[in-house]
Amino acid sequence: MRVLYIKHDHCSPTGSVGERFAERGYDATEFLVVPADRYHDPGVDVSFPDPASFDVIVPMGAIWSAYDHDRIGSWLLPELELLRNAHERGIPVLGICFGGQALALALGGQVEAASRPEIGWHEIETSHPDLIERGPWFEYHYDRWHPPAQARTLAHTEVAPQAFAIGTSLGVQFHPETTPEVLQAWLDNGGDADMARAGLRPDDVLAQTRRLAAAAAARAHRLVDGFLDTVA
């Protein structure tokens, strides 16, 4: 079994999600879209792998907005086509944050700026706690999706929908992959300033992440299991 991680930037490790896929016996391919030297100039040209070569596709998060075609359209539009192609072939997609927004766009939904950002550890309202637990989950987003017409919304906050399922695919707005190491990678690449602007102390958020790490990893593993065993 093979899983393709679409990593949109150099500072988004697969964390607890990647760990669980490995434990489930998946061989991983990580495809980097925007290399480190283009982080501030992300309009790169990309040739994506053939989704038919994989059993699962996992598009990860990103610092950009999924509607910012002027900056990232050179690779976003081909990625949307890849996700649409995979979904239509019955290849399961697990979209995480930006990846969930991209999945929504690929299948006919919309993405827009949220009324306010959600950053840090938050509990969510869930109608399917067997698949999408209440949390807390780590949030780090400024945008929100309107799900595709045939999708089932599974969870939400007052700011944004948090999960939808459609066919064999699942999109989540939060970051189940978050570990202290993942968060540190984000902080080292601009996340500290983002949190300060949101009125958060990065050191406090990192300390909280360390305290929650074991429970958060177990929760992320259950999410991957639920995705593989019930959605996919």
Please give a structural write-up.
With 232 residues, the chain is an alpha/beta fold. It has helices spanning 15-23, 69-88, 98-106, 180-197, 202-231; strands at 2-7, 27-32, 56-59, 94-96, 110-122, 125-126, 137-146, 152-156, 161-166, 169-172. A five-stranded mixed β-sheet has the order 4-10-9-8-6. A three-stranded parallel β-sheet has the order 2-1-3. β9 (161-166) and β10 form a beta hairpin. α1 runs parallel beside α5 and α4 packs across α5. The chain is globular and about 45 Å long.
Would you list the SSEs in sequence order as H and E? EHEEHEHEEEEEEHH
- The count of β-strands is 10
| Strand arrangement, major sheet | 4-10-9-8-6
Helical amount: 25-40%
- What's the end-to-end separation, in Å? 13 Å
Note the total helix count: 5
Q: Main beta sheet, described?
A: 5 strands, mixed
In round numbers, the mean pLDDT is 97
Radius of gyration: 16 Å
Assess the beta-strand content as a share of residues: 25-35%
Class by SSE composition: alpha/beta
Protein topology:
Blueprint: E1 2-7, H1 15-23, E2 27-32, E3 56-59, H2 69-88, E4 94-96, H3 98-106, E5 110-122, E6 125-126, E7 137-146, E8 152-156, E9 161-166, E10 169-172, H4 180-197, H5 202-231
Parallel strand pairs: 1-2, 1-3, 4-10
Antiparallel strand pairs: 5-7, 6-8, 8-9, 9-10
Helix pairs in contact: 1-5, 2-3, 4-5
Core attributes:
three-stranded parallel β-sheet; 232 residues; 5 helices; alpha/beta; five-stranded mixed β-sheet
